[in-house]
Amino acid sequence: MRNLLLIAKREYLEQVRGKAFRLSTILIPVLFVVIMGVVVLAGKNTAVGKHIAIASEDPQLAARVQKGVLDQKELKATVDIYAPAQPSMRDTLLKGLQDKSIDGFLWVEQAADGKITATYTSESSGDIVISNVLTTSLNDALINDRLRANGVTQSQIDAALKKVEVQTMQVDKEGKIVKSNGVVSYLKGYIMALLLSMTTMIYGMNVARSIIQEKTSRIFEVMLSTARSGDLLAGKLIGVGAVGMTQIGIWAAAAAALAGTALAAPLMSGEYAVHFTWKEGILFPIYFILGYLLYSALFSGLAATCETEQELQMYTPLAAVPIWLSFSLIFLVINDPNSIWSIAASLFPATAPIIMMLRMGSQMPPDWQFVASIAIMIFTIWGVLWFSTKLYRVGILMYGKRATLPELLKWIRYS
Fold first, then answer.
1. Residues whose CB is less than 8 angstroms from the CB of residue 239 and which lie 6 or more positions away in sequence, other chains included
2. What DSSP string describes 21-73?
3. Tens digit of pLDDT for each residue in 70-83?
4. How far is CA 261 from CA 25, 248, 253, 373, in A?
5. Within this chain, do residues 22 and 85 fall inside the same structural domain, yes or no?
């Protein structure tokens, strides 16, 4: 035990005192805030300031579509009308697209039988926002025309087409109805899951790189004269894990201090305010520790079979597959956190930490699922550690020999 603690202390102090720790502690939150800010600004500025042309045989219909687009003040769009439209105007509008004088045009045609067809043409296939706005505005204008043709007054039409904002509510565990926000739930779950996956991967890879460096420098041959291989691996996992907890603690303390300032008040009370419960505050470090132990144990076993960091990097994508799988399920989990697939993914050890963060952001799972998930993870970590330790005992002293599958089986039998 003494040797284990000494090794853990050495790993902890070596990394905490390093320049990389200080820089990452400062830069990772800054980069995270910058990325989130870019995403928000990009979302707000999507389709802003577009120059659109509307061509129709019916000038009144074109004018109503124009009004529908201009009513979307946040788009700040410029809308020109070409009506009554002639077939030759299509070539003019296409030329306008090519010389960048317009960003797109809506062409509305009415057949002899009264059927309306409409096409929106632009240079970008991803012009989704403007396309949706034009579709809504055109359909509202057509409904307006059809109702007027049936004798309905304009005031009655305006009253019938008046939009109603739908507020989202959620029933909590006590049966109380509380206000909810899907965007906030998504952001909260995504933030926790991203932070968890990022830190566990970083520190899991730190363990692996440390093993490779000590293996190539032959320092292990000296260390094994005073400590057992199991103590070396356990001390390394504890020391590097403590570095991760220290860094997360610094971020949490900084966030708590910032939350109490006047600068954060608008963010904490606005429409998109993100709040964390005490249960989330307890479960996050638990899942961080479990996720870190699982991935670092896996990485350490891989590192023991490698000769260089370049060789280790070839296996890294395989070890990161569970994280990619977890994020591929993000929309399924957010939309239906209690589905059989969401529950199964939150119980599967490799995806449990991230999926549980996503589920907590949307709807707090039952306590028994947390207990079952943590128990399964602990059992899996024990199994992975047992396997990795056996590889570690032999692999750290193996040089110049390729670690094939038959060779790995021999290592396990030798240890």
1. 7, 8, 9, 10, 11, 12, 15
2. HHHHHHHHHHHHHHHHHHHHHHHHTTTTT-EEEEEES-HHHHHHHHHHHHT-G
3. 888 878 888 899 88
4. 21, 20, 13, 37
5. no
Give the predicted TM-score (pTM) of the model: 0.63
Distance CA 401, CA 404 (A): 9
The CA-CA-CA angle for residues 402, 403, 408, to 5°, reads 150
Residue at a domain's end among 162, 191, 206: 162
Under 8 Å between Cβ of 161 and 140: yes
pLDDT tens digit string along 204-249? 777 777 777 777 666 666 666 666 766 777 777 888 888 888 887 8
3-class DSSP state for residue 170? strand
Query: C-alpha 38: how far from its chain's center?
Result: 14
Number of domains in the chain: 2
Closest to 391 measured CA to CA, from 169, 211, 179, 153: 211
Q: Domain check: are 291 and 360 in the same one?
A: yes
Q: What type of residue sits at position 16?
A: V
CATH of the domain at 121: 3.40.190
d(CA 127, CA 117): 19
Judge contact between 333 and 359, C-beta under 8 A: yes
DSSP string, 176-194: -EEE--HHHHHHHHHHHHH
Backbone angles phi, psi at 176, to 5 degrees: -85, 145
Cα 148 to Cα 158: distance, rounded to the nearest angstrom:
11
- Locate 32 and state its tokens: 């995270």
